Amino acid sequence: MDSRPSYRIYGDGIMKIERVDERTVKCFLSNEELEEYDIDYKDFILRSDKAREVVQEIIEQAEEQVGYKPPRFAFDLQIMMLPDQGLLLTFSEKDNDLRDGEQLIECLKEMKQILDRARDKIGMAASEGNRETVTEAPRRNPVQKPDFAVFAFSVLANVMSYAAAIPTNLRLDSELYEMDGNYFLFLRKGYASYERFSRACVQAMEFGSLYTADEEKTAPIKEHGTCLIETKALRKLRG
């Protein structure tokens, strides 16, 4: 298979598409090309319509010129600014290995721990009530189901890909933080059903990894991180 770089003349600039391996393609967009497209770095970050059109054109060019076969489902898009030169875009297929299963297991384990702690508190409250009076039966408080989770993403493009992949009518509450070069998406059930919230959490692990399902463990992010989007992060990233 021919993996040599391919070049396409566009205006005064040169679009360079390079096949790195079977699952990875790099594309260099010069400053001249960015001007021709009337697009910049922010368009790719915010996933604007112009950026989507350019990405689609790059993929089509990569298929034609270097035999690149885009992944059937999700792919990673990394964006690197090259000062005074342009942008370097890297397309790579999303890994769907055993790590996703391991993350799902960890997610379920952590949520189970929260449920166990809730049951323990209910049991302690019932025991105290029994000691105070024998005639009154202990009240049964409903066990709270987990309705909160935080997911970590290595690049913002993955958060945006996740936002675009979930249903538009999913009424989750979401916040986005950045800390130490990583992005943390806070998800709350909001008005969504527990089933749809759970599905959204599982789907999030296709693009990132579970950070925690315990709100008490989010203090370092809130104290030392930067809040990028305070409310409705998924809707705003979807554009």
Task: Throw out a few tags for this protein.
about 240 residues; Alpha-Beta Plaits; 2 domains; five-stranded antiparallel β-sheet; 10 strands; about 25% strand
What do these coordinates show?
- The chain has two domains: 6-93, no CATH class; 98-238, Alpha-Beta Plaits.
- Helices cover 41% and strands 27% of the residues.
- The chain is built from eight helices and ten strands.
- The strands form two sheets. A five-stranded antiparallel sheet has the order 1-2-3-5-4. It has a five-stranded antiparallel sheet with strand order 9-6-8-7-10.
- The longest helix is centred in the middle third of the chain and has 35 residues, at 98-132.
- The radius of gyration is 23 Å and the shape is elongated.
CATH topology descriptor of the largest domain = Alpha-Beta Plaits
Name the beta content range.
Answer: 25-35%
Poorly predicted runs are 1-13, 96-101, 132-137
Task: Indicate the radius of gyration in whole angstroms.
Answer: 23 Å
Number of domains: 2
Give the topology, please:
Blueprint: E1 6-10, E2 13-21, E3 24-30, H1 31-37, H2 41-46, H3 49-66, E4 75-82, E5 86-93, H4 98-132, E6 148-153, H5 156-165, E7 173-179, E8 182-188, H6 194-204, E9 209-212, H7 219-224, E10 226-229, H8 233-238
Antiparallel strand pairs: 1-2, 2-3, 3-5, 4-5, 6-8, 6-9, 7-8, 7-10
